[in-house]
Design goal:
Length: 223
């Protein structure tokens, strides 16, 4: 057998190596033009995430919860002026519920202030107009040390000597009355119309009593 010169064998070896290298590159090449390892997946494979929008530094988040700190306000219109008072619904739930229910029925519309004690109280809410009447229902006495009669403009429920006898009659203080603190339900405080209180005389009327933001109820038969 004729031996090939070493130079030819070397050339053939180089050519074979190049062929192997080119073949491997073709096997490892991408299957589609422009696709590479870092390319984003097709749209159907994407997981869309909504980016959180930055808020201005001075913007406060919107509170969707109802503001429970706002106390309901009763409006007492009289022939001497208008009185507004906030009600302590959180601390005095039984008393305020009774008062609001009577107000919503229109119970107080047209009733008189049948008792006036200068420097002490004005009192109304009696359908008989003599201090002997009520709504036909009585409520349990509530006392809360957070609220008291130590100044003018405090609302309280009138009652007889029996602690749980309050019904519809209520009073508003014209000055400090601390001796009432332990025996009478203090359920509200005048916020507007303090100057109206001293003008009230016996026989003056509550022409209309309603909760703020509500339409006035029609006057209902008393008794």
């Amino acid at each position: 057998m004729q031996k090939r010169p070493p130079s030819i064998i070397l050339v053939l070896g180089i050519v074979a190596a190049i062929a192997v290298f080119v073949g491997l590159n073709r096997l490892m090449a991408p299957s589609a033009p422009g696709q590479h390892a870092e390319e984003e997946p097709p749209p159907e494979q994407k997981t869309e995430q909504k980016a959180e929008q930055p808020r201005p530094a001075n913007e406060k988040p919107t509170d969707t919860k109802k503001d429970k700190s706002k106390q309901p306000v009763v409006i007492i219109e009289t022939n001497k002026g208008t009185i507004k008072a906030k009600l302590f619904t959180d601390e005095m739930p039984v008393t305020t519920k009774n008062f609001i229910e009577l107000t919503d029925r229109g119970f107080y519309n047209g009733l008189t202030w049948h008792r006036v004690e200068p420097g002490f109280v004005i009192q109304g809410g009696d359908p008989q107009g003599n201090g002997m009447g009520g709504s036909g229902k009585t409520i349990k006495l509530e006392i809360n040390s957070k609220h008291n009669f130590n100044k003018a403009g405090m609302l309280g429920m009138a009652r007889s000597q029996a602690p749980d006898s309050a019904s519809s009659q209520f009073f508003i203080t014209l000055g400090p009355a601390p001796h009432l603190n332990s025996g009478y339900a203090c359920f509200g405080e005048v916020t507007e119309g303090l100057d109206v209180l001293p003008k009230i005389k016996v026989g003056d009327k509550m022409t209309k009593v309603l909760m703020e933001g509500e339409k006035p109820a029609k006057e209902t038969p008393k008794g």
